[in-house]
Structures are given as C-alpha cells and as structure tokens.
Amino acid sequence: xxxxxxxxxxxxxxxxxxxxxxxxxxxxxxxxxxxxxxxxxxxxxxxxxxxxxxxxxxxxxxxxxxxxxxxxxxxxxxxxxxxxxxxxxxxxxxxxxxxxxxxxxxxxxxxxxxxxxxxxxxxxxxxxxxxxxxxxxxxxxxxxxxxxxxxxxxxxxxxxxxxxxxxxxxxxxxxxxxxxxxxxxxxxxxxxxxxxxxxxxxxxxxxxxxxxxxxxxxxxxxxxxxxxxxxxxxxxxxxxxxxxxxxxxxxxxxxxxxxxxxxxxxxxxxxxxxxxxxxxxxxxxxxxxxxxxxxxxxxxxxxxxxxxxxxxxxxxxxxx
Length: 320
Ligand SMILES: Nc1ncnc2c1ncn2[C@@H]1O[C@H](COP(=O)(O)OP(=O)(O)O)[C@@H](O)[C@H]1O
Ligand SMILES: [Mg+2]
Description:
Helix content: 40-55%
Bound molecules: adenosine-5'-diphosphate, magnesium ion
Oligomer: single chain
Shape: elongated
C-alpha cells in the first residue's frame, strides 16, 4: 500500500525576529543613530533548523515550553509570515486558529464576523450561506448572532472561532492553544469534531497545554525548545514521556529525546508487568490446586465417615 500524500513539508526552517528600537524611533532619529553608531538591532531566532513532513491524515502535536517558537512556526505554516531561511511546502488550503480573537471585529455582529472570517479564508458567499447555520449551531451562539462580537465572553469567542475554522472543511487545520478554553462539554464536542476532520482526510496541527490531549489525539510529535528542534517522531508516548520528564527535571536540565532509553524503560516495565501477571497466574493455579486437594480430602473423609457409619450400624445390628 502506498503512503498517503505529503501535505506539508518544513525544510530546515529558521525564523528570525528583529528586536530593536527601529520601530519606535522614526526616520530622523534612525538616521542619526545609524550615523553615530548608536543604532542597535538584535537578531532573535525564534525557530532554528526545523524540519518535518506531514502526510494526509496526520495529526501533529507540537510540544515545548513558553517561548519555544511554536506559535511563530505556526504563523509561517499558515502563511502569515515567511520563514527567514528554509522552505515550507503546503498542499491544500490552511485554516488556522491562532490567537483567539484575532481576525474578528469587535463592533461587527457574530454573524457578520463569521462571514468576514469566511471571506478571509477565501470562501464564497454561497459557501458561507450554506455553512453559516452549522457554524452558529455548533458554537451554540444562536441567541447572540446579532450581538456585537465584543460582547461575547472569551469562551464564546473561542467557540465561534473553532466552529468557523473547523466547519469550513480545511485540508490543513492549525489549532494553537485553543482547545483548552471552553467548558468540558464543548471540549468534548470540539475533540469529536477534530477527529471527524482527521478521519475526513485533513492534516491537523495541535498545540495544547494538555499533554494528555496531545497523547490522545496525535500520531506525530514535534518537540521544540528555545527554537531548537528536539524531536520529530511518531513515538508519541516516548516523546511525551521525555517531555514530561524534562518538565519535572531541575532547572537547567537539557531537554533530551532518548527513545532508546525510553524504549528500554518501557520494555523493562512491560517485562515487570508480565512477571507480575505470571506470578498472579501461578498463585491462582496454586490456590486452585489446594482447593482441589481439599475437595478430594473432604470427599475421602466423607467416604471414610460413611464407611464407619456403616460399620457402626452393622455392629449395632449384630449387638441387638
Ligand atoms: N513579534 C515578535 N517580535 C520579537 N520577538 C517575538 C515576537 N513574537 C514572538 N517573539 C519571541 O519569539 C520566541 C518564540 O515565541 P512563540 O513563537 O510565541 O513561542 P511559543 O508559542 O512556543 O510560546 C519568544 O521568545 C518570543 O518572545
Ligand atoms: Mg504560543
């Protein structure tokens, strides 16, 4: 069987931010500082040499502490910014849910915002007419459709954003820390929706605070730390185990993806579990054997007693 087609490829992607005073100072001051050598711009690489490939139906979890470069990478993947170095190849339309309220207009109504977002994602009015009822229904905001967006709670905003991003049938869906908001019921509903999207053949990227959710949903992991790629792997459990061990480790510990060590640990745990199961089986066997023995002994005693009783009766009879 041939593998599903590659939908997204990041090839040695590095992304730089220019950090400095160039934005705030204005042209005249800029010229002055350049001339006097007081102009300082610092390069800051938010992502360095990131490479991975996703196939149709993959669900990638990106893990890493704050400032790891996750959101920056997602911006480049969704096309909001260009990588400074390297290449990103996309196949299919990308629907990204980055920052919750971004791309919404506070003064427009919920309905107007849904259409606006749809238009920004490149969908036609006819498509949005068809899709809007599902969006408003899924986000449970029917009662608010004519209210200004700014009046919504942040949970409501995220519900709307998720409903739009997921119901427009994207081929690549990007979710940056958006599933942890909302109540339990909506979380379950959005997870189910995501599974449906994945089953439908979409490729999904998920950044979540919840490692449990990543373990549950993803089949590949990209681990970033301070912009560096620590791992890209389909050993989801191994990567999450290493990451959680890193989070528990004392400050200054280097992040390390050591699948062999993890595999050895897991093999040892499995062997131990098997040994315990065998021991339980042996004890059970022993118990059964003893019970059988006791039953045999009981039967023997009963037979003995019956015999004695018979003898007693005979003796009694002959004694008459
Ligand atoms: N617009 C920006 N200008 C300068 N630095 C930024 C900008 N956006 C993010 N950064 C920096 O880039 C690093 C990575 O940020 P980000 O991609 O948001 O990480 P994450 O999403 O993993 O927390 C952080 O150190 C952050 O401070
Ligand atoms: Mg982020």
